[in-house]
Amino acid sequence: MNEHAEIIQKIMEGFAERTGLTGNAPPRRYLWTDAFAVCNFLDLFQKTGEERYKKMALSLVDQVHAVLGRHREDDPRTGWISGLDGEAGRRHPTGGGLRIGKNLPERGPDEPYDDQLEWDRDGQYFHYLTKWMHALNRVAEVTGRMRYHRWAMELAKAAHAAFTSAVTGSSTKRMYWKMSIDLSRPLVMSMGQHDALDALVTYLSLTATAKNNPNSSSSPNLDREIAEAMAMCGQMSLRTDDPLGIGGLLADGCLLAQVAGGSDFLLEELLIDMLADAADGLERFILSGTLKYPAEYRLAFRELGLAIGLHGLEKTVSIIKGRPQYFSSRETLLSRIADLWKHLTLAGEIEQFWLTPLHQESKTWTDHLDINSVMLATSLGPEGYLHAAGNQH
Prior knowledge:
This protein is mostly helical. It has 16 helices and five strands.
């Protein structure tokens, strides 16, 4: 058992009761947080053997689909956001994507854009959808119920088709940052820096699951989507000094190493670039001095995203060293990881800071309690999240 097992259990049970998964509170669903929570509950089930944690994971999936797969209560539209009727919607709950779960309704077609207000408005984010694809894939692997994998594949198809568009006068494609609830129009036109990378890594993991499970033969393939995501990755710089972004690069790197070894030299080159950009970004983030600020000036979930990614380094090293025949650039990869390895203790420092009761009294913790606490639990027990379903090595 993980040394933090009791803390993780307490965090996740508190989250479940507070957000209406258990107990009597009305359901309060938010896609990013819920994706990490599903992985946490599955990991608790696997480590404790307690069926209640598997039931929580499955109940959370059902509740997310029932809430975020349907229109908001304050929306004149009703039913599944995919437009499917009741029974068809239940069979294909991800066919129209899933709402973010923001507090405010989405911006109407005639409403002016407000940069600050847009962060609190509903809609769909692609990088939230990839997190949910990953969570559904984990459910399929842990339970053996391939309908969850089919839902992840259907979500991948729907999201990719809606979020990608051709660049005028070119065969190149790009992705919108944010789409409307019904995926009919972009709400933010710019492209997310790591959205194409999230797409590529997630699609590869979904494909690996399909190849390793004969019951998934009827699932659609993602060959075209993988090719387009790979092309888009080559257009965007991955370098960032945002802690959540750096952590995302490292987590994606861990997942990519599990599904890409020996299959494509271009993916290995991409992994090298990801690790180099993460190392550069981490050095710049540390130099910023943000981690010396008091809790009131720090955002826990962003820092904990970094901690989760740092935890993935050990697994990445293990994979590369354990399968030298799959990595032709093994020494280069390990050299890039060495640039990050010296900062590995930072993960524990971030966790200890946010485990401190006094720091959990800060407004920046309490205002984002659900996402902060769930990502703290993931960082304390990252194995459930940092596993590419379909990895057989």
